[in-house]
Backbone:
Protein backbone atom coordinates (compact mmCIF):
# COMPACT_ATOMS: atom_id res chain seq x y z
CA UNK A 1 0.00 0.00 0.00
CA UNK A 2 2.82 2.42 0.88
CA UNK A 3 4.63 1.59 -2.37
CA UNK A 4 1.44 2.22 -4.38
CA UNK A 5 0.96 5.63 -2.72
CA UNK A 6 4.62 6.48 -3.32
CA UNK A 7 4.24 5.62 -7.01
CA UNK A 8 1.07 7.71 -7.26
CA UNK A 9 2.81 10.67 -5.60
CA UNK A 10 5.76 10.31 -7.97
CA UNK A 11 3.42 10.46 -10.98
CA UNK A 12 1.66 13.52 -9.59
CA UNK A 13 5.01 15.22 -8.93
CA UNK A 14 6.14 14.47 -12.50
CA UNK A 15 2.93 15.95 -13.87
CA UNK A 16 3.36 19.08 -11.72
CA UNK A 17 6.98 19.46 -12.83
CA UNK A 18 5.89 19.23 -16.47
CA UNK A 19 3.26 21.93 -15.87
CA UNK A 20 5.94 24.13 -14.33
CA UNK A 21 8.48 23.61 -17.16
CA UNK A 22 6.47 23.19 -20.38
CA UNK A 23 4.50 25.79 -22.33
CA UNK A 24 0.90 24.59 -22.33
CA UNK A 25 0.20 25.51 -25.96
CA UNK A 26 3.40 24.55 -27.78
CA UNK A 27 4.59 21.71 -25.52
CA UNK A 28 8.19 22.95 -25.53
CA UNK A 29 10.10 24.54 -22.64
CA UNK A 30 8.44 27.64 -21.20
CA UNK A 31 10.12 30.93 -20.28
CA UNK A 32 10.76 29.88 -16.68
CA UNK A 33 12.46 26.68 -17.81
CA UNK A 34 14.43 28.64 -20.43
CA UNK A 35 15.70 31.15 -17.83
CA UNK A 36 16.80 28.42 -15.41
CA UNK A 37 18.44 26.31 -18.12
CA UNK A 38 20.28 29.25 -19.67
CA UNK A 39 21.70 30.19 -16.26
CA UNK A 40 22.93 26.61 -15.71
CA UNK A 41 24.39 26.31 -19.23
CA UNK A 42 26.17 29.65 -18.91
CA UNK A 43 27.73 28.57 -15.62
CA UNK A 44 28.84 25.30 -17.24
CA UNK A 45 30.29 27.17 -20.25
CA UNK A 46 32.18 29.53 -17.92
CA UNK A 47 33.55 26.63 -15.86
CA UNK A 48 34.71 24.63 -18.91
CA UNK A 49 35.40 27.61 -21.20
CA UNK A 50 33.34 26.31 -24.10
CA UNK A 51 31.16 28.05 -26.63
CA UNK A 52 27.47 28.56 -26.14
CA UNK A 53 25.06 29.99 -28.69
CA UNK A 54 21.66 31.53 -28.12
CA UNK A 55 19.13 31.79 -30.92
CA UNK A 56 16.10 34.08 -30.73
CA UNK A 57 13.44 33.93 -33.44
CA UNK A 58 10.16 35.57 -34.22
CA UNK A 59 7.32 34.79 -36.61
CA UNK A 60 7.29 37.60 -39.18
CA UNK A 61 4.17 39.80 -39.18
CA UNK A 62 2.42 37.60 -36.63
CA UNK A 63 0.06 40.35 -35.47
CA UNK A 64 -1.24 40.68 -39.04
CA UNK A 65 -1.51 36.87 -39.18
CA UNK A 66 -3.74 36.85 -36.08
CA UNK A 67 -5.77 39.77 -37.40
CA UNK A 68 -6.37 38.01 -40.74
CA UNK A 69 -6.85 34.40 -39.66
CA UNK A 70 -7.94 34.67 -36.00
CA UNK A 71 -6.40 33.59 -32.74
CA UNK A 72 -7.21 29.90 -33.12
CA UNK A 73 -5.26 29.82 -36.39
CA UNK A 74 -2.54 31.83 -34.64
CA UNK A 75 -2.34 29.19 -31.92
CA UNK A 76 -2.13 26.46 -34.57
CA UNK A 77 0.67 28.39 -36.28
CA UNK A 78 2.58 28.64 -32.97
CA UNK A 79 2.15 24.91 -32.40
CA UNK A 80 3.47 24.09 -35.89
CA UNK A 81 6.45 26.43 -35.52
CA UNK A 82 7.26 24.82 -32.15
CA UNK A 83 7.13 21.35 -33.74
CA UNK A 84 9.58 22.49 -36.45
CA UNK A 85 11.78 24.04 -33.78
CA UNK A 86 11.83 20.82 -31.80
CA UNK A 87 12.64 18.69 -34.86
CA UNK A 88 15.33 21.11 -36.10
CA UNK A 89 17.11 21.39 -32.75
CA UNK A 90 17.01 17.85 -31.45
CA UNK A 91 20.39 17.19 -29.86
CA UNK A 92 20.03 16.20 -26.21
CA UNK A 93 21.69 19.46 -25.13
CA UNK A 94 19.53 21.78 -27.30
CA UNK A 95 16.76 23.56 -25.42
CA UNK A 96 14.04 25.02 -27.67
CA UNK A 97 11.64 27.24 -25.72
CA UNK A 98 8.73 29.57 -26.16
CA UNK A 99 10.14 32.88 -25.01
CA UNK A 100 6.87 34.79 -25.19
CA UNK A 101 4.08 35.53 -27.65
CA UNK A 102 5.37 34.57 -31.09
CA UNK A 103 9.01 34.66 -30.00
CA UNK A 104 11.02 31.48 -29.50
CA UNK A 105 14.54 30.81 -28.26
CA UNK A 106 17.00 27.93 -28.41
CA UNK A 107 19.92 27.37 -26.05
CA UNK A 108 22.75 25.66 -27.95
CA UNK A 109 25.59 24.53 -25.64
CA UNK A 110 28.93 23.61 -27.27
CA UNK A 111 27.82 25.29 -30.48
CA UNK A 112 29.81 27.75 -32.58
CA UNK A 113 28.17 30.52 -34.59
CA UNK A 114 28.48 28.73 -37.95
CA UNK A 115 26.97 25.51 -36.61
CA UNK A 116 24.13 27.46 -34.98
CA UNK A 117 23.58 29.23 -38.29
CA UNK A 118 23.41 25.95 -40.24
CA UNK A 119 20.91 24.54 -37.74
CA UNK A 120 18.85 27.74 -38.03
CA UNK A 121 18.87 27.52 -41.82
CA UNK A 122 17.41 23.99 -41.54
CA UNK A 123 14.74 25.41 -39.23
CA UNK A 124 13.83 28.16 -41.73
CA UNK A 125 13.58 25.55 -44.50
CA UNK A 126 11.32 23.36 -42.35
CA UNK A 127 9.02 26.36 -41.76
CA UNK A 128 8.96 26.99 -45.53
CA UNK A 129 7.89 23.39 -46.21
CA UNK A 130 4.84 23.86 -43.97
CA UNK A 131 3.49 26.45 -46.45
CA UNK A 132 1.27 28.07 -43.82
CA UNK A 133 -0.63 30.76 -45.79
CA UNK A 134 0.05 34.36 -44.73
CA UNK A 135 -1.71 36.71 -47.16
CA UNK A 136 -0.96 39.82 -45.08
CA UNK A 137 2.82 39.31 -44.94
CA UNK A 138 4.87 41.92 -46.78
CA UNK A 139 7.57 39.41 -47.74
CA UNK A 140 5.93 36.07 -48.56
CA UNK A 141 2.63 34.33 -49.19
CA UNK A 142 3.55 31.97 -46.35
CA UNK A 143 4.67 32.22 -42.72
CA UNK A 144 8.36 33.11 -42.35
CA UNK A 145 10.81 33.43 -39.46
CA UNK A 146 13.49 35.95 -38.55
CA UNK A 147 16.42 34.76 -36.42
CA UNK A 148 19.14 36.36 -34.32
CA UNK A 149 22.08 34.34 -33.00
CA UNK A 150 24.82 35.21 -30.56
CA UNK A 151 27.75 32.90 -29.73
CA UNK A 152 30.29 33.38 -26.97
CA UNK A 153 32.76 31.68 -24.68
CA UNK A 154 31.48 33.37 -21.54
CA UNK A 155 33.71 34.63 -18.76
CA UNK A 156 33.04 36.06 -15.33
CA UNK A 157 31.21 38.28 -14.88
CA UNK A 158 28.67 37.05 -17.42
CA UNK A 159 25.43 38.98 -17.61
CA UNK A 160 22.61 36.66 -18.73
CA UNK A 161 20.46 39.67 -19.66
CA UNK A 162 23.24 41.06 -21.84
CA UNK A 163 23.40 37.73 -23.71
CA UNK A 164 19.65 37.72 -24.28
CA UNK A 165 19.75 41.39 -25.34
CA UNK A 166 22.58 40.68 -27.81
CA UNK A 167 20.58 37.82 -29.40
CA UNK A 168 17.46 39.99 -29.43
CA UNK A 169 19.42 42.81 -31.11
CA UNK A 170 20.49 40.37 -33.83
CA UNK A 171 16.86 39.30 -34.23
CA UNK A 172 15.80 42.90 -34.75
CA UNK A 173 18.67 43.39 -37.17
CA UNK A 174 17.29 40.45 -39.18
CA UNK A 175 13.86 42.09 -39.15
CA UNK A 176 15.27 45.47 -40.17
CA UNK A 177 17.26 43.86 -42.98
CA UNK A 178 14.19 42.38 -44.66
CA UNK A 179 12.96 39.53 -42.41
CA UNK A 180 12.97 35.82 -43.23
CA UNK A 181 16.70 35.81 -42.56
CA UNK A 182 19.40 35.09 -39.99
CA UNK A 183 21.79 37.56 -38.39
CA UNK A 184 24.56 36.11 -36.23
CA UNK A 185 27.56 37.33 -34.27
CA UNK A 186 30.31 35.81 -32.13
CA UNK A 187 31.14 37.96 -29.12
CA UNK A 188 34.34 38.13 -27.05
CA UNK A 189 32.41 38.55 -23.79
CA UNK A 190 28.97 39.22 -22.38
CA UNK A 191 28.87 41.82 -19.61
Residues:
Amino acid sequence: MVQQRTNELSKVNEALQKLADVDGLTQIANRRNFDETLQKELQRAIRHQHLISLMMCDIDYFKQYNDRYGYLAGDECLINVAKCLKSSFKRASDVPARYGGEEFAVILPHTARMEARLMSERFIKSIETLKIPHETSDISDYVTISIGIVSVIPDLPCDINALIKAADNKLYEAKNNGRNRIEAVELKSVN
